[in-house]
Design goal:
Elements (H helix, E strand, L loop, with lengths): L8 H10 L19 H5 L6 H14 L6 H4 L5 H5 L18 H7 L3 H23 L3 H20 L4 H14 L7 H6 L3 H12 L4 H18 L4 H9 L15 H12 L3 H11 L2 H11 L11 H13 L5 H15 L4 H10 L8 H19 L6 H17 L3 H11 L4 H4 L12 E5 L2 H7 L5 E6 L3 E7 L5 E4 L11 H10 L7 E11 L4 E2 L2 H4 L16 E11 L2 E2 L5 H11 L7 E3 L2 E2 L4 H13 L4 E6 L12 E9 L8 E12 L8 E10 L4 E8 L5 H11 L3 E2 L6 E2 L10 E3 L4 E6 L1 E5 L14 E5 L2 E5 L11 H15 L6 H7 L3
Parallel strand pairs: 1-12, 7-9, 15-17
Antiparallel strand pairs: 2-10, 2-11, 3-4, 3-5, 5-6, 5-7, 7-8, 11-12, 13-14, 13-18, 13-19, 14-15, 16-18, 19-22, 20-21
Helix pairs in contact: 3-8, 3-12, 7-11, 8-9, 11-12, 12-20, 13-22, 14-15, 14-16, 14-18, 15-16, 16-19, 17-18, 20-21
The chain binds three DNA strands through α14, α26, β12, β15 and β20.
DNA sequence: CGGGATTCACG
DNA sequence: ATCGTTA
DNA sequence: TAACGATAGTGAATCCCG
């Protein structure tokens, strides 16, 4: 059944702005004791406030020499933490902290040393931030209380629920919105408070600490300004609306650099230079601001104001929209203080990069809500309640991934019974279940020993979650919950032909695959990707698709997630009927022997599939687990199997500066194959994955000796565009790469003219394997070999297509 | 109308 | 996709 | 070992700027 609030689009959009003002006072929640189950405390993650304190205590003890001086003065926390391997000497002078953790990580130092240093940084940073933003009196009390509590804790640790509960009680009682948070209710949460939390989080790599900082901050927000909670959550996961609403900022690196440049009066070249050195635009913005003389102190930013500005950026379109967006960013930047610029820019980049993402945010939110509920009743949150809350919230969110619905529901009615109020609803996409990759059939047999399992073809197309609501509306969602109905009007309209009479509402998990009507065959993914994206009219659909259905998650008002796969599959077959070339059930086979699987795998490859999915068939473990990469679904991909995957030896022609943790090394490389006839190297792909951090350092060391100012005359590469490397190399180094597939490319030059007059060949999913010291650059894979690999692949895809002739046909759409 | 920037799909 | 860190 | 987050790829469509 639908949740109380309809998951409609317009309603949620508007509600953001209304939220801070129209806060409903939290409703007292009915007391409900959860039977304590012994399984839980033995279990995985009973993270309570209690335990987190333990961590902090331990650290304080170890680092007696922690510098506290900053904590007293109202210093901007940023001063210290901004400094990130910075060259600019002028801004260095006032700080004492030696290094940032980030710099160290990229250097891969001896681990023990790193840890010690990191700890002391954590402590100083946290203290100074706490005081700087004065989160609440509670924070101060916590700190004060810590030393006494310590002995209790470390002694009994293992099983003293009483002591634990006692400590938790103290903490929760101590936790009150202090005077300084009083105006949070009026103005909304200060953006500085959120950024201070980000700063703390960024300062550690410990997941429990990250979780703790997040949940404490959420508790503060719930207590002081619940109306900001939804926006705080959105800013923390760095989004502005549910995925399926399709609200995008439309801001990328280029515009951001322009905005920073304009806002700080520095040249674009300077900003780019800094970006290359720091690997982080946020830091660049903050530093650039620091170099400007500040005339007067701007009005502090608040979470609601930042959030509504982001929304505004997202909804701005049309002529000179880019200028308008830049204008908004400049205005925001001018109001930023301390570290706010850093996180504002990172938000706009779409990457907070503080090791905090959705899963952890959900856990923290659950903890905070449970703790706050108990707090309101003057009680103590029990560990079981917290663990259960985390569980409930995660499940609920998987089924109904909308903070717009869940957060108000949590605030009004708490986490108890949330699972009944917010359920899987046709019309709201749920997170698809994912499969674990395996490398061999034996691995599959090991996993499913003595269990019933089934095999299905793994189709090479696009995941499509098809919904039909009881009022007869249908939608198609992508793997990432984007609304694709406008891209697939043909799928929407064919539903009536495939749905049986008794089927009134459903959620169906499928793969949409490009379909050759003449040959009645599957076409490669590259064909599918040439389909128009927006406002497709059914009449002018050029690329036909066939839907392959493989799972049914909801039928006629009932969620089937907890049913076994065999039951779901039976219901699916009853509820739908196949129509050739339009709607088919994924081909499956229930055989359990290695021979049967091997045979089926070979068949799937012959039938233009990527390999197999192998799934638990019976019992509770065969339930559908949204968003989980579960061991109950495995995939066997053909290119992982011996002999089917392709390996090439390629020459490194150029490289791109790394970012984030790859600052100061090359982050990606341009590779080429060799054409002995033309005596030239031809670009074939970029590669940026498969390297260990050590590899990257070594490659940087070796390759920087071969840097040349411009490409050799005997390099055949695209003359411009984003593929142009930041640095070029002499042709010296040869690497072995793995790839899944080869594709015809408009940008790369490899084997150009050999299978297609204008297009070269590139690699799909290239990954670095190892150095080939034993090969000279002239011994690299040749263009002719590349062309041959492409032809071989094309002939399997086209079956009897007849070699090169058929190759071009595949792509003449 | 071409090219740059952005977003999205796949892995 | 792969890798590294944490638990 | 699993979970999670951070780093990367090609290619196409689409939007906006000049």
């Amino acid at each position: 059944m639908p949740p109380k609030k309809a998951p409609g689009k317009q309603a949620t959009l508007g509600s953001f702005f209304a939220m801070p003002a129209g806060v409903k006072p939290p409703v007292p929640v009915k007391e409900e004791k959860v039977a304590s189950s012994p399984a839980i405390e033995a279990g995985s993650s009973p993270v309570t406030e209690k335990k987190e304190e333990d961590v902090e205590v331990a650290e304080v003890k170890k680092d007696d020499d922690v510098k506290m001086s900053d904590a007293e003065s109202d210093v901007e926390p940023s001063k210290k933490t901004t400094k990130r391997k910075v060259v600019d000497s002028s801004s260095e002078s006032e700080t004492a902290t030696p290094k940032s953790p980030k710099t160290k990580r990229t250097k891969s130092p001896p681990k023990k040393q790193a840890k010690t240093t990191k700890r002391s940084i954590i402590e100083t940073t946290n203290d100074s931030i706490d005081s700087a933003i004065s989160v609440s009196k509670a924070a101060a009390k916590e700190d004060a209380a810590t030393p006494e509590a310590e002995s209790e804790v470390s002694d009994k640790e293992a099983d003293v629920p009483d002591a634990v509960a006692k400590k938790a009680a103290e903490e929760i009682k101590a936790f009150k919105p202090a005077e300084k948070t009083k105006d949070w209710e009026k103005e909304g949460v200060p953006y500085a408070a959120l950024c201070a939390t980000f700063e703390k989080i960024e300062s550690t790599t410990k997941r429990l600490e990250i979780l703790s900082y997040t949940s404490k901050f959420f508790r503060t927000v719930i207590a002081a300004s619940p109306g900001s909670l939804l926006q705080v959550v959105y800013l923390t996961i760095n989004r502005i609306a549910p995925d399926y609403e399709g609200v995008e900022l439309g801001i990328g690196e280029g515009l951001l650099i322009k905005a920073i440049s304009e806002a700080t009066g520095r040249s674009i070249a300077q900003v780019k230079q800094d970006y290359q050195e720091t690997g982080d635009l946020g830091t660049v913005a903050q530093r650039s601001k620091g170099m400007q003389p500040t005339m007067f102190k701007p009005k502090p930013l608040t979470v609601p104001s930042v959030f509504s500005n982001l929304k505004e950026i997202a909804t701005t379109s049309g002529q000179s929209s880019q200028a308008k967006k830049i204008g908004i960013i400049k205005k925001l930047l001018s109001s930023c203080q301390g570290n706010e610029a850093k996180y504002l820019i990172r938000s706009l980049e779409g990457k907070l990069r503080i090791r905090l993402a959705e899963k952890t945010v959900l856990t923290a939110l659950a903890q905070a809500v449970v703790a706050s509920e108990a707090d309101k009743k003057g009680k103590i949150a029990k560990t079981e309640d917290i663990v259960q809350g985390e569980d409930t919230l995660k499940t609920v969110f998987s089924n109904l991934p909308s903070y717009d619905i869940i957060v108000p529901e949590l605030l009004n009615n708490g986490v108890n019974g949330l699972g009944d109020r917010c359920t899987l609803t046709p019309g709201v996409p749920l997170k698809p279940m994912l499969a674990k990759p395996t490398k061999a059939i034996t691995e599959v047999l090991d996993r499913f020993e003595n269990q019933k399992f089934t095999c299905e073809y793994k189709y090479d197309g696009e995941r499509a979650q098809i919904h039909l609501t009881p009022d007869g509306k249908s939608k198609v969602y992508s793997r990432n919950s984007e609304d694709m109905s406008g891209r697939y009007p043909d799928i929407v309209s064919r539903l009536e032909r495939v749905v049986n009479d008794a089927t009134k509402s459903f959620v169906l998990d499928c793969e949409a695959v490009a379909w050759d009507i003449q040959e009645k065959k599957i076409l490669p993914f590259q064909v599918l990707s040439t389909r128009k994206r927006k406002d497709v009219q059914e009449a002018d659909v050029k690329i036909k698709v066939c839907v392959f259905a493989f799972d049914l998650l909801y039928l006629n008002g009932e969620s089937l997630l907890t049913k076994s796969l065999s039951e779901r599959r039976t219901k699916m077959h009853e509820a739908f009927q196949e129509v050739e070339g339009e709607f088919l059930f994924a081909k499956w086979m229930d055989g359990q022997s290695i021979e049967e699987i091997q045979f089926f795998l070979d068949e799937s490859v012959k039938d233009s599939c990527e390999g197999l999915m192998v799934k638990m068939l019976e019992g509770p473990e065969s339930g559908y687990e949204p968003s989980k990469r579960s061991r109950n679904w495995l995939k066997i991909k053909k290119d992982y199997l011996a002999g089917v995957g392709d390996s090439l030896d390629l020459v490194v022609l150029g490289a791109y500066h790394g970012r984030g943790k790859r600052t100061n090394v090359y982050g990606a490389f341009l590779l080429g194959c060799y054409n002995p006839e033309a005596e030239q190297w031809e670009s074939i792909c970029k590669v940026g994955t498969g390297f260990s951090e050590e590899d990257l350092e070594n490659h940087h060391k070796v390759l920087k000796e071969h840097v040349i100012v411009k490409p050799k005359g005997y390099y055949s590469v695209a003359d411009s565009g984003p593929n142009k490397p930041d640095v070029w190399f002499e042709p010296r180094v040869v690497w072995e790469l793995l790839t899944a597939d080869l594709s015809l490319s408009p940008t790369y030059k490899a084997a150009i003219g050999m299978v297609n007059a204008e297009k070269g060949i590139s690699l799909r999913f290239p990954r670095y394997l190892r150095v080939r010291d034993d090969k000279k650059p002239e011994e690299a894979t040749t263009s002719e070999q590349v062309a041959e690999m492409y032809r071989a692949q094309a002939s399997t895809q086209k079956a009897s297509g007849g070699g090169a002739g058929g190759v071009d046909d595949d792509f003449e759409y």
